[in-house]
From TrEMBL:
Protein name: RNase H type-1 domain-containing protein
Coiled-coil portions: none
Pfam families assigned to the protein according to its UniProt record, in alphabetical order: RVT_3
Lineage, opening ranks: Eukaryota, Sar, Stramenopiles, Oomycota, Peronosporomycetes
Gene3D superfamilies, per database record: Ribonuclease H-like superfamily/Ribonuclease H (3.30.420.10)
PANTHER family to which the protein is assigned, alphabetical: OS05G0353850 PROTEIN (PTHR47723), POLYNUCLEOTIDYL TRANSFERASE, RIBONUCLEASE H-LIKE SUPERFAMILY PROTEIN (PTHR47723:SF19)
Length: 151
């Protein structure tokens, strides 16, 4: 297989007064970390909302930087993977706009595969979610890093 990019995403939600978060990580097929982001969100959202936002955020970055490269997406939320691929119907009103945006982006890539994986294969995105939720930062906080960043 030639050049491709791997997107891992995750989302998490804790108690109602605690932050929720989403994260995305992108690697080249050679294993080089290209970009990551983690966002804490207040007030708390649902776990599925955060999972979907993690996927959407990663796809938006990939569209700007790696649109013509095949993309392999992994996440530990089979529900969000199946909603994104239109295998499952989206019945929750809070998820409809995000899943619609995800579905609108997918055809813009040369090739995309979506795969639900066990949590043990999604440790980077999961770790970023937990890390940013644990930081107790301001109401909305996003931290990100790109391989192109010099700092």
């Amino acid at each position: 297989m030639g050049l491709y990019a791997l997107l891992a995403f995750d989302g998490g939600a804790r108690a109602s007064r605690k932050p929720s978060a989403h994260a995305s990580c992108v690697w080249s097929n050679s294993g080089k970390l290209l970009w990551w982001t983690a966002s804490a969100v207040h007030p708390c959202a649902t776990n599925n909302e955060m999972e979907a936002m993690g996927l959407l955020t990663g796809l938006r970055w990939l569209l700007r930087h790696y649109r013509s490269v095949p993309i392999h997406v992994i996440g530990d939320s089979a529900i969000i993977i199946n909603m994104a691929s239109a295998t499952y119907r989206v019945s929750a009103n809070n998820l409809r706009p995000v899943i619609r945006d995800i579905r609108d982006l997918l055809p813009l890539f040369r090739q995309v595969t979506l795969q639900a994986v066990p949590c043990v294969y999604n440790v980077a995105a999961d770790g970023l979610c937990n890390w940013i939720m644990d930081m107790q930062l301001s109401p909305i906080t996003t931290l990100r890093k790109s391989a192109d960043d010099t700092a």
